[in-house]
Amino acid sequence: MRATSTGKRVTLQPRDWLWLQKLHQHGPLASSFLLTYAKHLGKSEKRAKERLGDLFHEDNTVHGGPYLTRPPQQFLTIDSRYNQLVYGLSKAGERALKENGLWRPANASASGPWLHSFMVSSITASIELAVNERDDLGFIPQADILERAETVLSYPVEIVDPATKRKVTKALKPDALFGLEYISDKESRFRFFVVEADRATEPLTSSNFNRKSALRGFSQYQAYVSGRAYKEHLKLTAPLLVLNIYNNETRIERTLDLLKRQHPQINSYMLFQAWENFETPFRPPLPNAGLLNGSWARVGELALSIDNEQSHMQ
User: Fold this and answer.
1) Alpha-carbon span 125 to 22, nearest angstrom
2) Helix (H) or strand (E) holding 128
């Protein structure tokens, strides 16, 4: 839990740089994710875990401290000692990236409680790791999209307050953004995705329109996607889909029923899948390839898999 230096000198190696960049790109990640990213850079998993330990413990570095943190929130459960470790980027790690021109402000991680941010980073990293195993797919990071569009992730969206019928403007800020390139012999095609991670901490509906709820979020996405505001915001010509990842199937069923009654018109681009590792008690997950090649539910439409560009046309 606490870094304890032995005085050992640590100089960043190619695998270390990869880990720092992935933690910067996605946010906090469990060790299984970091080991998978770097499996081509070393054969021994034991030595890789030991190296992660060195990057956490040893402060004898050119950048003035250990390069990694172990976020304390992971140790709040009774059985945390039996879980794999979760790592984050330290201030020294940030300095290393900035001094070497590898820092990208558009990588800003999801806001809110730590567990929410960790769920988001686990989602995007899982999809990228699954893409890395394929020759017919490419992963486009959030920073690439935002830097190209010269914009930020948040965007003001005008919606109607159902109680007063007045138009109001609320900022829409997805938890994350990424793209997929579908590679073929003829030409590449593209799809882009925003991520919404749901741990059932917010109500599906609320009588107070100023309180954030799932229903208000769906109204914002109707304006943003159906109204094609994302094309102006992100400078995209390819379609945008919304990936909603919940921590249990029951909440998905309730949400699909709500959408069927309230917003049936957004059924084609609003996708749902459950990842139950983020229920209580907390246990850091392994990479989830099913987010790429598994089935995503929709309201009144056939389920689809996002790894197949043709399935989006159904």
Assistant:
1) 8
2) helix 114-132
